Amino acid sequence: MGSSIGVIPYKTFSGNLFNRSFDLQKPLRGQIELTYRCNLHCVHCYTDCFNNPADIKKEMTTDMIFRLIDEIHDAGCLWLCFTGGEIFMRKDFFEIYGYAKKKGFLITLFTNMTGVDEAIVNRLAENPPFVIETSCHGVGEAFDRITQVAGSFERFDNAIRLFLRHGLQVRVKTKAMTLNRGVLGKIKTYIESLGFKFGVSTDIQPDLKGSYKTMTYSLTPKEIVALEIQQDEPPFVIPAKAGIQSDSCLHKDNFLDPSLRGDDIVEAPHIYRCGCGANSFLVGAHGKLASCVFSRQFEENLSCQPFQQALQRVFLRVRSAVFLGDSPCRDCKITHLCEKKPGMMHFNAQNPEEPVKHFCETAHLKAEKLGITRELP
Q: Which stretches of the chain score pLDDT less than 70?
């Protein structure tokens, strides 16, 4: 009798793959922003600035996305997320989705749910994605106030119940901000009534054209820390790959293209300590490759070069970014508690090396709760 195949938890399986891909610099997971079109105008949305006819005309064609999917598959990617904007605003969405499914990707879909009808749900039920993720930032009028579209919560509620009736895997996220901080308990009750676990995030970033208007809806550092402490999960978790632990990932032999080998990399503390530029990527709707949604200053245009070449260039530039000045962030010991994304700081020509008061205060409040004493920069 042959031996049976062992079974391991999905969390262990994915963790092992991510750790290996981190060491090998393989793009194991990626996001493609299929469009910036959206039927909502959420106040905190960082892509809504591109939700206009002129910018929408610049978006990738179906054929370009097909070519991109082929190249991403050949690069070894396993997890692929389609996001927007609102993905179902593209008339060719199911062509793109079906093409990617045939390649064998584990596909996540991000949708606001409010444009979903029974026909869409039926097609997804016939060929299900790995998971569908959505956001619930309010209930009733509170939801509509954030989306700035009347009746959007009712459409959201109808759609999510439709997905559940068809047995599709759904996850719900909530962004805490000034417009819903007083109704988080009501949101929690609603989400849990649907059978989901309630979880809150608080990070809000500038929009993709550099406006900080979105961040005016951010909670204060004290509110953020108090909220995170209340959650069931440990509030301040240090990720396994919380930073680049050695110079091995910067070794020139890690780059396949000799013209991209970083022989002149400076020995100095890295600006990016989050694992950015190691095993994940983002492709914007205009065909620009970046390392993640928060870091777009090192973009490469995919219309004029292969995906793997562009990826090497982006990864090299991110991993080569080092502190050249004497910023307090340079030797900070609590960066794992800080939500500052260096890529954000390139908006409006801000210095990515310098601390940002909001994130700095929040990190030090977290450190205080953990019994870590640090002097504010």
A: 1-25, 231-268, 343-350, 373-377
Locate 188 and state its tokens.
């929690």
Which segments within 291-329 are labelled E, that is strand?
300-301
Amino acid at 87: I
Contacts of 305 by beta carbon, 8 Å cutoff, 6+ apart: none
Q: Which residues pair with 152 in a beta bridge?
A: none
Three-class SS state of 109 = strand
Q: In this structure, what token pair is assigned to residue 38?
A: 């959206």
CA angle (167, 90, 63) in 5-degree steps: 110
Contacts of 17 (CB under 8 A, 6+ apart): 28, 78
- Measured distance CA(368)–CA(29) in Å, rounded: 34
What pairs with residue 31 in β-bridges? 81, 282
Instruction: List the beta bridge partners of residue 30.
Output: 80, 281
Q: Tokens for 349, please give them.
A: 């020509």
In tens, the pLDDT along 276-329 reads 888 899 999 999 999 988 888 889 999 999 999 999 999 999 888 888 888 888
Helix (H, G, I), strand (E, B) or coil at 346: helix
Measured CA to CA, the distance from residue 21 to residue 28 in angstroms comes to 6
* Rounded Cα gap, residues 300 and 279, in angstroms: 17
Query: DSSP character for 270?
Result: B
* % helix, strand, coil for the chain, step of 5: 40, 10, 50
pLDDT at residue number 265: 41
Contacts (Cβ under 8 Å, ≥6 apart) of 87: 34, 35, 93, 109, 110, 111
H or E element that contains 33:
strand 29-33
Rounded CA separation 211/276 (Å): 23
The per-residue pLDDT for range 89-144, each reduced to its tens digit, is 999 999 999 999 999 999 999 999 999 999 999 999 999 999 999 999 999 999 99
For the chain, the C-alpha Rg in angstroms (whole number) is 21
Buried b / exposed e along 198-222 (16+ C-beta atoms within 10 A): bebebbbbbbbeeeeebbebbbebe
340 CB neighbour count, 10 Å cutoff:
22
